[in-house]
Amino acid sequence: MILKSSLFLAIGLVSASFCQSQRIITTDVDYFWKAYDKVSGVKDSALQASLFKTWFIDKASKGQQALFEVRNYQPEQYRNAINNYPAFWSSIRKNTLKARSFEKEIRSNIAKLKALYPPLRLSDIYFGVGVFRTNGTIKNDMVLIGTEMALSDKTVNIDNVPQHVKEFNRQNTPINDIGLLCTHEYVHTQQNLPVDNLLSYCLYEGIAEFVSTFAINKPSYAPAIRFGADNYEKVRNQFEEDIFITGRTYHWLWSSNQIFGFRDMGYSVGYEIAQRFYRQAADKKAAIKQLIELDYTDEAEVALVVNESHYLSKPLEQLYMEFEKNRPTVLKVEPAFNDQNLVNPDTEIVTLFFSEPMDIKVRGFDFGPLGENNVLKVQEIIGFSEDKKRFSFKVKLEPGKEYQSLATNRFMSEKGYPLKPFLIHFRTAQGK
What we know:
The structure is a single chain. The protein is of the alpha/beta class and 432 residues long. Among the domains are: 11-190, no CATH class; 330-428, Immunoglobulin-like, CATH 2.60.40.1220. It is built from 18 helices and twelve strands. It has helices spanning 2-21, 27-39, 45-57, 62-70, 75-84, 86-96, 103-116, 147-150, 163-171, 178-190, 198-216, 223-230, 232-242, 249-252, 265-280, 284-292, 299-309, 316-326; strands at residues 24-25, 124-128, 136-139, 142-146, 330-334, 342-343, 349-354, 365-366, 378-384, 390-395, 402-407, 422-428. The protein has a four-stranded mixed beta sheet with strand order 1-2-4-3, sandwiched between helices. Helix 2 (27-39) packs antiparallel against helix 3, helix 12 packs across helix 13 (232-242) and helix 15 runs antiparallel to helix 16. The longest helix is centred in the N-terminal third of the chain and has 20 residues, at 2-21. It is globular. The model has no long low-confidence stretch (mean pLDDT 92). This is DUF2268 domain-containing protein.
């Protein structure tokens, strides 16, 4: 018992020391409103720009500068937003100026996260102001909060703001969950970056949401998380249809595209996988560490976490094999090549023959291994045949030249499966 009490005391002392070292910077909010007051009422656009630069841009902290960078915010966007949405800014002001009042809650949450995950590294938290493109994000070891979104509530006038801001506010009361948001983004500063695919992004976001809610013992405020838990099979089945399809990421994450009527359903998928993986783990602390430190470039490690969670209906490898079987292929190309891959240089039309009907709205070509100098240049698109199984285009060939073009996975079947890339590769015969 004495040993156990000593252990808890040691953890408490470490967390307290860590908490005292935590920096929370809110000065950019004050600078923004000083700039806002200078700009408001000024009609001359050049003077507005100069005043905003002097009172906000030039005074920006390291974190606000990072927010400019990661969301590609430009001074003109701020000026337009100030001029176009006066009712919004007037109503959000009092909330943004409360940023410092959340410091105690945030420090307490980070201390709890440190106790759950002892290797936690310090990250500075910056409360800044953006132009409606993030409530929270990160850069390296900085948490970046966009207070114009993160500190909104039902008193804020959203009548004339962009549609995605209206949707965000209607589905959430962000200011009530600022402590959780900061913890979620803090987890991101500890994670490895995801690779560019849907599963990786869902895990990256869902793990951060699970770990943060678990650490502070507070449920997620995101409606998508609740819907995903209540409608597990429906969400899982749709995810299994989309998981390997290029271009489906924004159906699930970071856009106004809504599956099942909610934004960011991908958070729910990753959250469920993380939660189920944790629950089955014999060593809980090791499971948290494995989730946070997941190497998204290691396909075997990602598959292990997904498979051991038993979220999917089948092992990840089996789902991928089934996906590959469903992908359309190019059966042949006309004109037909002879044994030496030689084509008549007078050929004007090239036709691809597909294994099944294709989506006629999408297509894509890229360079082959030989690069741009040898690409098969399209002179005119003829298009798809009536049965959608052939695609033709006009070319202009030179004699005695080697050509390559890659028909990419931007071609898709009617069922939504991407084409297995096919390299068109031939030489033209020498002219007479």
